[in-house]
Amino acid sequence: MGELFDFIVRSRNFILFVLLEVICFYFIINTSNYWSATYFNTSNRYAAQMLAWSNAVGEYTQLRQVNADLATENQRLNQELTRLKQAQPAAPAQYKADSLFANRFKYTVAKVVNNTTQFANNYITIDKGTDDGIQPGMGVISPTGIVGKVKICNRHFSVITSILHSEFLVSSKLIKANEIGTARWDGVDPNLVKLRDISRIKPVSKGDSVVTSEFNSTFPPGILVGRVRSVGVEPNQTFHDITLNLSTNFGNLAFVYVVQNLLRPEQEQLEKQLEAEK
């Protein structure tokens, strides 16, 4: 208290000056219509600017929750879209998938906590593990397309083998040509992959869409892999040399969806039984 009193005594002249300035300013504003209007217009402008800044900061701090909410909503929509596609596949009119087959894919939304793109073999870490039902072998997609496959898990985290991996292969289909091939990264550009095993007699054009095919148990069919960037012919081969623009941007990957095929163990068990009998 004594220090505060000493400060007031030492600064009494300055405090008196500020007080007189405030009183003068008050009288000027209240005795002149011009200065009164100028003051209120100026103060309102700065108040509005401060409010706009405050709202912008508030909206920015809420972006994380907004993104999480959008990811959850996309998860629900992906699951519903997959169910509808599987219930009414491109097949003869007399064919109808049963409800168990149509609902075999289950989606779990997860946040990316680590991601590499600069190596020959790249991996992604997410914040969901076995406690959330994640298991090795499950497919992983993004809101825009394919991402990879779960490699290992613990209770709270999982590591995904990215499509940007030298050994990652995915059965893919050219929609227009209705031709099945294999998408594989060549280890060069993280935005591009190669589509192999497409016969050179099949018509392929720049911009054609490539999606996951029906011939795998990891991904739902119809998930976008990429679009044709360039088409050539492999030397001394009967196949096209096709480069795709990846549909997923791995540089800003924030949320992914882990896909569980509920019927996969049953399918694989039957196929292994057939192999054992050969």
Please, could you describe this protein's structure?
The chain has a 6-stranded antiparallel beta barrel. The chain has a 6-stranded antiparallel barrel with strand order 6-7-8-11-10-9. By secondary structure, it is an alpha+beta fold. Helix content is 36%, strand content 29%. About 3% of the residues have low confidence. The termini are far apart. It has 2 domains: 59 residues, no CATH class; 159 residues, Thrombin, subunit H. Helix 2 crosses helix 3. The chain is built from 6 helices and 12 strands. Keywords: Cell shape, Coiled coil, Membrane, Transmembrane, Transmembrane helix.
Q: So, CATH architecture of the largest domain?
A: Beta Barrel
The percent range for helix content is: 25-40%
Query: How many strands in all?
Result: 12
H/E element sequence: HHHHHEEEEEEEEEEEEH
Mean pLDDT: 80
Low-pLDDT ranges: 91-98
Structurally, how many domains make up the residues? 2
CATH superfamily of the largest domain: Rod shape-determining protein MreC, domain 1
Task: Give the spatial strand order of the biggest sheet.
Answer: 1-2-5-4-3-12
Tally the helices: 6
Question: What about the largest sheet?
Answer: 6 strands, antiparallel, barrel
Write down the Rg: 31 Å
State the secondary-structure class. alpha+beta
How far the N terminus sits from the C terminus, by CA atoms, comes to 95 Å
* Fold-level CATH name of the largest domain: Thrombin, subunit H
Q: What is the 3D shape?
A: elongated
Which CATH class of the largest domain is shown? Mainly Beta
Strand content: 25-35%
